[in-house]
Target: MBL fold metallo-hydrolase
Amino acid sequence: MTLAIHALHLGPLDNNTYLVVHEGTRETAVVDVGFGPEAVLETIARRKLVVRLLLNTHAHYDHVAGMRAIQQACGGDYYLHPADRPLLDHLAEQGAAFDFPPAEPPDDAHDLADRQSIALAGEAIEVIHTPGHSPGGVCFRHGRWLISGDTLFLGSIGRTDLPGGSFEELERAIRERLFVLGDAVQVHPGHGPETTIGEERMHNPFVGENARLA
Model:
């Protein structure tokens, strides 16, 4: 039985929080809770989900500020790429810079590594390191779906003007690590609607085939 993705659209920046659920056991990975942890907890309780993993694609405030609330209420092992630890350590300062309320990071962060395989109910979730939006940005892949965080969006890419950002690194990561996954792969981004690798490979104005000709 494969893992199903359920999206919640939360907060002033229209963040996508994902619940990755094994429909047989109800074991769940919670991905990128920035805003609205109460709504996430309500969904977990209503659907009788069992939280095993807490995963962050990166450590910007709008993706991590609500993760501690989920951890305290539900438990679960928390994972983040070590290159984003400095961002996690300065979560409160990140929020203050954008006039968001104070937030504390989750406890006991486990390190993510490129090509790591994380098990959820016997199913493997692959970690793909895609720096550029942040130094420790990652995507999570299982079968025909990809949670891309702020690496790749429908018709866009993550901003690279924040500390630690690099357009060159992001472009290389997308073209060399994501576009090779196959055009049929469904992309579930950190903001906005879903897309596919094929759509972005062909038409993304920043990193797609047409961008190479510009």
User: Anything to note?
Assistant: The first strand starts at residue 3 and ends at 10. The mean pLDDT is 96. The chain has one domain: 3-213. Residues 167-178 form the longest helix (12 residues).
